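User: I'm new to structure prediction. If I give you an amino acid sequence, what do you actually give back? Let's try with this one:
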Amino acid sequence: TRAVVPWYQQEQQLTAFEQWFKERLYPFWFKFVKGPYERYQYEHVVAELRGYGLMFDDMHNTHEPIMERAMELLPHDLSVGRYRRVMRAFEMNT
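Assistant: Good question. You get back a string of structure tokens that encode the predicted 3D arrangement of the chain. For your 94 residues, that looks like this:
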């Protein structure tokens, strides 16, 4: 029997237009439109979070398995600092 390869692991064949777009147009799109817009959005979110004394990483959901593991691996002082920032923001918000 032949092993079935999942769709996301199959090699993608690009059309001639898609290849042209990827090589010629997309770098300019990213450099002048998408990149600056995403940077603006990131800076705007960070500025709002700083108003509450938070960091960007404090936005992650701590109940996801990967975040739970990351929290276990954090040094104690960073974990305490994160907890205090979140509690301070919670008190400021209420």
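You can read the tokens as a compact description of the fold. Here is one thing that stands out. DSSP finds three helices and no strands in the chain.
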